[in-house]
Write a structure and sequence with these properties.
Elements lengths: L16 E5 L2 E6 L2 E7 L4 E6 L4 E6 L3 E3 L1 H9 L3 E4 L15 E2 L9 H10 L2 H25 L1 H5 L7 H13 L6 H22 L14 H23 L17 H24 L4 H14 L2 H13 L11
Parallel strand pairs: 1-5, 2-6, 5-7
Antiparallel strand pairs: 2-3, 3-4, 7-8
């Protein structure tokens, strides 16, 4: 039998897997976590490598045993309950995760975060830094990825450069969170327009309840990003309620803030490209996970959170 500490030897930032399961039973068997699918003639068991897993999303028709939850907790795996196709996460429209109970997470991150969080001006500065990190990551991905460039998602394109440059110049000028949110909304709207034009999906409208492939894929990819963001904030011990942008009282809002760093760069173009290619939801999900791994999305989230923790300490940034 493995000791609980052995299950955490792989850092969360280096783990590769986000699982979405539906119509199965998750259980513990012989010291492993398995999921069981029932066929007409036989039952099939599949192993889940929990020590190399960050998030498990349990969709329609799933159940999980107490023993399996205990092992997932020991391995530091976050569990989310969602609807069919990976969306939405239950508890209404809120983000809700079954987080492992661990009182030995680091304390310096939440203490550093709270040292400035109650100051409105400093919280605005933190939100601006997150928005700038979002642009930096988008530029990085869209500058390197050949598949994205084939569909016009290139940081070297003049219209993309102008859009990102204008956004970068405008972010520091915003004097309140509401204005920053409005600026963010305009950027996202322009990116949707760019994506629909590049993939020849004219007339696209962002609708969270939409039934077209692009909207479905956007929902699904966003929830995968939320899973990584929830992992990053939980591992560092920062409660999800201490958001900097999506509202001081919105439950789980920090998850939205952190997930925004990677959504536009990866989820948005993939959703439109896969919709154009008529990919299945399973294929789209796998593409998202592959891109998260390739561009080290979880590492980026960890690093950005750490850089914010101490950015107001002694008036200078000194995050390790």
């Amino acid at each position: 039998m493995l000791m609980p500490s052995d299950l955490k030897t792989i850092l969360h930032s280096k783990r590769a897997n986000v699982y979405f399961l539906e119509y199965c039973r998750v259980m513990q068997k012989d010291g492993r976590v398995l999921y069981l699918t029932e066929a007409k003639k036989e039952n099939l068991y599949y192993n889940i490598p929990i020590a190399n897993t960050t998030v498990i999303l349990l969709g329609s028709g799933t159940s999980i045993t107490q023993a399996a939850m205990r092992m997932l907790s020991q391995a530091g795996v976050l569990v989310g309950f969602c609807g069919g196709g990976g969306t939405p996460l239950f508890m209404g429209t809120e983000i809700e995760w079954m987080t492992p109970q661990n009182e030995y997470r680091p304390t310096e991150y939440v203490q550093g975060w709270l040292s400035w969080w109650f100051d409105d001006d400093k919280r605005l500065q933190a939100a601006q830094k997150l928005q700038l990190a979002r642009l930096d990551f988008l530029r990085k991905v869209w500058s390197k990825d050949k598949d994205f460039k084939e569909y016009g998602f290139s940081a070297q394109e003049e219209n993309v450069q102008n859009l990102l440059d204008a956004q970068q110049q405008a972010i520091p000028k915003q004097d309140c969170i509401m204005h920053l949110l409005q600026l963010e909304a305009r950027l996202t709207k322009n990116l949707y327009k760019l994506a629909s034009t590049n993939t020849k999906q004219t007339g696209f409208t962002r609708e969270h309840q939409g039934t077209d492939r692009a909207n479905i894929f956007l929902n699904h990819g966003n929830y995968l990003a939320y899973g990584l963001a929830a992992t990053a904030t939980w591992v560092l011990g920062i409660p999800h309620g201490f958001a900097v942008m999506h509202g001081k009282t919105r439950r789980g809002a920090l998850v939205f803030d952190v997930a925004d760093i990677i959504k536009d760069a990866i989820v948005l173009p993939l959703a439109f490209i896969c919709a154009k290619e008529k990919c299945s939801e399973q294929d789209f999900r796998q593409e998202c996970i592959n891109y998260f791994t390739t561009y080290k999305a979880l590492d980026v989230m960890f690093n950005e959170i750490k850089s914010l923790v101490f950015f107001n300490s002694q008036g200078a940034e000194n995050a390790e």
